[in-house]
UniProtKB/TrEMBL annotation, chain B:
This is Sugar kinase of the NBD/HSP70 family, may contain an N-terminal HTH domain. Keywords: Kinase, Transferase. Belongs to the ROK (NagC/XylR) family. InterPro entries: ATPase_NBD, ROK, WH-like_DNA-bd_sf, WH_DNA-bd_sf. It holds the Pfam family HTH_24. It comes from Paraoerskovia marina. One of its GO terms (molecular function) is kinase activity. Transmembrane segments: none annotated.
Length: 250, 399
């Protein structure tokens, strides 16, 4: 197993509020790393740091051991990190293919190469075993889960190594939650590193390999999802229980 | 006053009407259990004359219980008989250790929707059942079926089940599910009858009725996934035993001095081929893997993963051979996630079975992979749901 991204002693403040304090974290390929925590624990800030939305005040972000400066989401994408946020940033009036290829459309001469884009879109959705009625319907006509799938598919287009999913199951019905969680498993099988940020312990335990717990900006511990009980996790999130000595996995 | 048995409105036994009623029930039962049959096959299975079959099928088609479609069998024209779709829907749920699968089908066993959902390790029964019932409701909505069209639900649970009461009967096998009253809980949430059985039993039923074991009897089914389960179908019926533990091959003793199993005994088959053990063997060399990863890597030629799976096949074969010596099945169907590895696991399994079974003039039992793969248990759940609907009289004939 190889670490795709390493956060070394990373801190980030917004004014007087310390969002993250001295966080060390490794994100490995072929693994789902879940980040859980209460509101204001620093989960979204962590997602922002990984995807180039925020830059750290202190500490380093390393990719394959080399320090990098992720100054913008575009820079992060060039380094192979893609993110899907709670606001999906899809264009409701455009169809699935147009949304997937927005900004990097395939061209054939002076025209758009609709045929190859549509084929690629289907290939991508098939690989994710995603169920979309048609790639030519406006995104507004799709369900919440399907829209999230499209957003994730778009993140996958440049074949990134790391995919950051910020709260992918909030505001979804049970069937759509099932589809998104199955999709996360599929991403892992394809060899991506997945960072899953969520506050649903049930969903996190269902798909994660490792669970990192944040509390008030501090990394409380990393847990092996296979052997950690819900009670241990809740204890670590709320601070009711100090993490056991063995709680820090690897 | 009269005792209850006398006051029933049923026709006198032996009368023409009761005979006809019994024949009708027999035909509906045969069609339901086989999914679809030609009239000639129906005659063979029920033992009724082709003329009787033709008459009753015509009558039941008229009342909307059966439907017929033209087809061909061995080059001849034939009438294919299925249950009418309009009869209603059934749902099947398979609770795995880490995945829940839900399928929805109409009465002719045509699949209408299927969904799977990852589950947490050691998930709790109440959470699982709530998610299952919500999924069933959303899926019923998505095929635009009205309330009341759902006839019955079948549930598979990876632990021994007391099928008469629908309660998990094991102690300590499935944490969070011990003693769970699955049937009562889910039928209260969904408002339809619920049948519960062990997951491997359901897989056995699905393979015996519709899958790789059609036409064989007895059938032994082994499900190798996170845990190891087994089911036995004898004379077309599942063997449950006293409290639903029949066929629990995962807890057959392989080594008396072996490690302690989750069931409390020593050296069970599961302590050699259960997923924690297989993955544990690879942890030092390969890091954190899932069972699916091991199968894919073995197929891609990874030597370590191949070795782990072929050893697992040999252990499984030893236990299956013991079962074969007791039941003498015509076929052994291997299902579950490990079966996806194909001959990497099946070849050592076959040779262990050949070595250790009593030599017979018929040769060793056939060992085949499951036809439905990881969906076998959910298919079996559909089958028991439809059985339940028929025995409750929802298919238009009294049982």
């Amino acid at each position: 197993m190889t670490a795709a991204i390493t956060l070394a002693g990373v801190s980030k403040s917004f004014g007087a509020a310390q969002a993250l304090v001295d966080v060390d974290l490794e994100v490995n390929t072929h693994e789902v790393l879940a980040v859980v925590g209460d509101n204001g624990a620093g989960k979204s800030t962590l997602a922002g740091l990984l995807s180039g939305v925020h830059t750290p005040d202190r500490g380093q972000v390393r990719i394959d051991g080399e320090p990098v400066h992720l100054t913008s989401p575009a820079a992060a994408r060039r380094e192979g990190i893609a993110a899907v946020f709670q606001e999906l940033a899809l264009c409701d009036n455009l169809d699935v293919v147009e949304n997937l290829f927005l900004g990097h459309e395939a061209a054939a001469g002076i025209f758009l190469d609709e045929v190859s884009m549509e084929r690629q879109a289907w290939e991508l959705l098939d690989q994710l075993a995603a169920r979309v009625p048609s790639v030519r319907v406006p995104v507004a006509a799709l369900s919440g889960g399907q829209r999230r799938t499209i957003a994730i598919a778009r993140a996958l287009l440049g074949d990134p190594r790391v995919i950051v999913l910020d709260e992918p199951t909030t505001a979804l019905g049970i069937r759509q939650t099932a589809q998104v969680l199955t999709l996360v498993e599929r991403l892992r099988e394809r060899g991506h590193a997945v960072v899953l940020i969520s506050h649903s312990i049930t969903d996190v335990q269902a798909v994660a390999d490792r669970i990192a717990v944040l509390r008030l900006g501090h990394l409380i511990g990393e847990f092996d999802a296979e052997t950690t009980t819900t009670e241990d996790l809740l204890g670590a999130i709320t601070g009711a229980v100090a993490p056991r000595a063995g709680g820090r996995a690897s | 006053m009269y005792p209850d048995s006398v006051r029933t409105t049923r026709e006198t036994p032996g009368s023409q009407t009761s005979l006809r009623e019994a024949n009708r029930a027999r035909i509906v039962a045969a069609v339901q259990q086989h999914g679809s049959l030609t009239q000639v096959e129906l005659s063979g299975i029920t033992g009724l004359s082709p003329a009787t079959i033709s008459n009753i099928v015509k009558e039941l088609t008229g009342t909307g219980v059966l439907s017929t479609a033209p087809s061909t069998r061995s080059g001849r024209r034939a009438q294919l008989v299925t249950l009418a779709r309009s009869l209603g829907l059934v749902a099947g749920v398979d609770f795995g250790s880490r995945t829940m699968r839900v399928v929805l089908a109409d009465a002719s066993m045509r699949l209408l929707a299927s969904e799977q959902m990852p589950l947490a390790p050691d998930h709790r029964a109440d959470m699982g059942m709530q998610r299952a019932s919500m999924l069933i409701q959303e899926m019923t909505d998505s095929v635009e079926a009205g309330v009341g069209e759902l006839l019955a639900v079948g549930i598979g649970v990876p632990a021994p089940v007391d099928t008469a009461r629908g309660v998990v009967s094991s102690a300590g096998l499935l944490r969070g599910w011990d003693g769970a009253d699955v049937a009562a809980n889910l039928s209260a949430q969904l408002g339809v009858p619920v049948s519960v059985d062990n997951d491997a039993n359901l897989g056995a039923l699905a393979e015996a009725r519709y899958g790789a074991a059609v036409g064989y009897d007895p059938v032994v089914y082994v499900r190798a996934s996170h845990g190891i389960g087994g089911g036995i179908v004898l004379g077309g019926r599942l063997l449950h035993g006293r409290a639903g533990s029949a066929g629990e091959i995962g807890h057959v003793t392989i080594d008396e001095n072996g490690p302690i199993c989750r069931c409390g005994n020593r050296g069970c088959l599961e302590t050699f081929v259960g997923s924690p053990v297989l993955l544990g063997m690879l942890a030092a060399s390969h890091g954190h893997l899932t069972l699916g990863d091991v199968v894919t890597r073995a197929q891609d030629g990874d030597a370590g993963c191949r070795r782990v799976l072929s050893d697992a096949g040999a252990h499984l074969g030893a236990a299956v051979a013991n079962l074969c010596n007791l039941v003498d099945p015509e076929v052994v169907v291997v299902g579950g996630q490990l079966a996806a590895a194909g001959d990497i696991i099946l070849a050592p399994l076959r040779s262990a079975v050949e070595q250790r079974t009593v030599p017979s003039a018929e040769g060793p039992p056939v060992v085949v992979p499951s036809e439905f793969g990881e969906w076998a248990e959910a298919r079996g759940a559909l089958a028991v749901a439809l059985d339940r609907a028929r025995s409750d009289g929802a298919l238009g004939v009294s049982a």
